[in-house]
Write a structure and sequence with these properties.
By secondary structure, the chain is α+β, with helices and mostly antiparallel strands. Helix content is 55%, strand content 10%. The radius of gyration is 23 Å and the shape is globular.
Length: 248
């Protein structure tokens, strides 16, 4: 009889321990979620209804840039495309290593481009916001600008987001960036020199400083005719704001 009890105990003990571990994990997760929600964050690093990085602070009250701020945002961008006389201008502050920026690129950017930019309704402006904890974001932004010097900014922009998982963790990311340039038909010597000398390093840092001056540190962040829209929002969110600005 004692042997049977011992056997039963040996079977139940690991099961009970496993259940206790699962319960502790669930309680811990719920408690962490509650604490982070109280601080305005979710476990994904996003604020309520915003896909931004954990720890970023976006002013809650500010929803519109002043005219002076808007004009400053439109000066000397990394890249701009679309009709210069378009009624609506969309400015994007982006980080090439940010997963939410990649999500926006994959799920929304193409729709905004085809429905509004290609039809002459929107002019699209790109600016850089490399977050400090994304170690290769600054170099990626510089590489895109070096490609832009040879007329291939957008192609390189697309390539960086398409291959983000390949280069984001590299310790010598410049090698891959130079290979991308060759693959896109850029002049290798010119591109390599641009990247190696840090020709656009200060320009990228200036964009970062501008974003911080405006109180924007989450990526991606957008200004639609100065109206602020933060995060990897679905196309429908952009459509509402853009159509409103178009009077449609």
């Amino acid at each position: 009889m004692a042997s049977k009890k011992a056997s039963k105990k040996n079977v139940l003990q690991p099961l009970l321990i496993g259940l206790l571990v699962l319960a502790a994990f669930a309680i811990g997760s719920m408690w962490t979620e509650i604490r982070m929600m109280k601080g305005g964050k979710s476990l994904t690093g996003a604020k309520p209804s915003q896909q931004v990085q954990e720890g970023d602070v976006v002013p809650e009250e500010k929803t519109q840039l002043s005219e002076d701020e808007l004009q400053e945002v439109l000066k000397n961008p990394a890249y701009a495309f679309g009709d210069e006389g378009a009624k609506v201008t969309v400015v994007e502050f982006s980080d090439y290593q940010c997963p939410f920026c990649q999500r926006y690129f994959q799920q929304t950017f193409g729709q905004v481009e085809s429905e509004y930019v290609d039809t002459g309704k929107v002019r699209y402006v790109m600016r850089d916001l490399p977050l400090s904890f994304h170690v290769n974001a600054q170099t990626a932004a510089e590489a895109a600008r070096c490609a832009g010097e040879q007329g291939k900014y957008k192609e390189y922009h697309d390539k960086l987001f398409e291959t983000q998982s390949t280069w984001e963790g590299l310790s010598e990311v410049e090698t891959s960036f130079k290979q991308y340039a060759v693959g896109l038909g850029l002049n290798a010597l010119g591109f390599n020199s641009c990247l190696d000398t840090g020709k656009f390093s200060q320009a990228v840092k200036d964009d970062l400083a501008l974003a911080q001056k405006l109180g924007v540190s989450g990526t991606p962040s957008f200004f639609v005719n100065g109206k602020i829209l933060v995060g990897a929002q679905p196309f429908s969110a952009f459509k509402v704001v853009i159509d409103s600005e178009l009077g449609e």
